[in-house]
Amino acid sequence: MSKNKMPQILAKDKEISVPGETLAIGMDVLPGVGTYRDKEKIIANRLGLVVIEGVTIKLYPLSGRYLPKSGDTIICKVIDVGFNGWRLDTNSAYSAMLSMKDATSDFIARGANLTQYYDLGDYIVCKIVNVTSQKLVDVTMKGPGLRKLKGGRVIEVNTNKVPRIIGKQGSMVVMIKEITGCYIVVGQNGFIWIDGDPNNELLAVQAIRKIERESHLSGLTDKIKEYLENNVKIKNDLQTKN
Amino acid sequence: MTYKQRIDGRGFDETRPIEAEVGIIPRADGSAMFKIGNTWAYAAVYGPRNLHPKFLQDPQRGILRCNYNMMPFSSSGERVRPGGSRRSKEISLVTEKALFPVLNLEEYPNSVVDVFIELPQTEAGSRCAGICAASMALADAGLEMKDLVSAVSVGKVGDKLLVDLDYSEESYADGPVADIPIAIMPNSDKITLLQMDGEVNKEELLKLLEMGKKVCRQIYELQKKALKEKYHEADG
Amino acid sequence: MHRELRSHIIKLLSADTRLDGRKSTEYRKPIEVKYGIVKTAEGSARVRIGETDVIVGIKMEVGEPYPDTPDEGTIIVGAELLPLSNPEFELGPPGIQAIELARVVDRGIRESKAISFKKLCVEPGKKVWMLLIDICTLNDAGNLFDASSLAALAALRDAKYPEFDGEKIDYKEKTNKKLPLEKLPIAVTVAKIGSEFIVDPDIDEERAIDSRLTVSSIDDGTLCALQKGGDYPLTLEDITQMVEIGIQKAKELRKFL
Fold it and tell me: ipTM, 2 decimals?
């Protein structure tokens, strides 16, 4: 065989692809994440959005539950309080352990009642320090921004949309915070905490849901900015009328 | 006895009308509806999620658990007692075997992916409808899958080989009947479900499997379309 | 365990809003009632309230009457909280939540005399019609009581007798004869949280409420069934207000039939 055949890319960039679909044919195309090679063909390994980067084809996931990763900052709910630590719901198939020594920079005496720190049902922001091959997850509360959340509400979003909700270098979530005046913490695991004045809090939630729905469209930041400004304006007008 | 024409006038290689929709159960991680003729199936996927009791866990991969169930009012005769039967348990098993080969759950040790299939209305071909719905729901749930799974029943009624037997054909009394539900992975033509009730000879069986593969590829196009439509709807 | 959520909802209510922006006496939208969606059932309906989605199917059988009511047919209501509809529902026989749901729906229909059981009699002492009403949940986004009651009523409205020759039922042949439906009982669930009342609690609110009262009433406002649930008591004042709200909202919901 002297020449390689010209690679054929069958899928279009930003197209939705379905498991089993042939995305490209040829040995010069590389299977990126979400795809696999079967002889000459590159085939979709999941439901996803096609992303063509040079000679690599990958699929950006649109759905799927969170899988804990070391280094992620997540929001968890306390589901069990033991002698040495707490068990946490991470919004995934795997719960996490927070041990006493990682819980706070304060000194906790042995035998202390741990519920005075974090109690059942509390939401906390923590960071994953280790995930074993068996998916045992260890987290820490020691670090900037890691804390127990008080007040507000926690909503659940599609974990795959979190990058869009945060935006480039946080630009999207910062914009929502500024316009609505709410405190917002976004967990990589799809839990988001929002606290603010009742109407603005609802507006922030609606904006986040809108980002979830329209995450694959371009110009989203501007659209969300417009949406927020229009709706904040409506509420302000109603208030001044009264 | 010759079976001259199908009672509903279909061609021998034609299925009943099909409808498919994805994402109809918002609480589930993935969901879909598949309707073929008067047989109607819902499937919902929850997972990967926590699995208890511990002895069921597999430290190397997530496990797949399927449950097939008919709603009490789904049969054209008397009410079906809720709680499943030996038949529904067997169907749950073969459904799981039909779907497992396409899934890769190695990233999720010790967890479970639960698939629940419920049928509000059945009129032949229910296990195949359930598998078609379940496979769309698994893809909707974002799981790693080599391929979808498409299923249909093929068979022999009297002297004719045909696809997608309806109730009257399953219970045809004027000649031999064979009812053969099959499921395939449409992009590699590999068979993941094969059962048979009735009598056929080897040549007929092979011919029927070819007919089935062809129809399953058509069904795959509809499943694909339903999946893409759900995500395109978000396109403002 | 849900103290925080509860305080938060109370804070929102003091600003006259809820987690999803509704007012306290607002039902979710859309509310949809679809009739006759299951061909194999003698009667069926599907109801959606917001994202809560429920199917009810009715199968009819002829059997022997109960000895103390020889000239009356009957209804038997069953409910299945399908694992399909909520990640917290497990496989298995109906638990207490499913049983409560079935019995509350049953009481609304039975006590309002929506169907005259005497009209279901075929041959006194020997043969009566039995209406087997089965509730199956498709998506539980909260307030299954109201969605299931509405769907059961709509299914009764949709139902037609199958052919019966006096001995055997031919399920494949439906007649055009409808059931003798005389009243339209509507269930409205009112919940108390703090000192506020809300209707149609959604799945998040259900976790945080103190108690609830499901009020079933007919067109003229007569009450036919009540069910209190939740861990906390209600005062007489509370009940008076909740019943009033229940009757008013029932009039609105009835329009969707």
Answer: 0.95
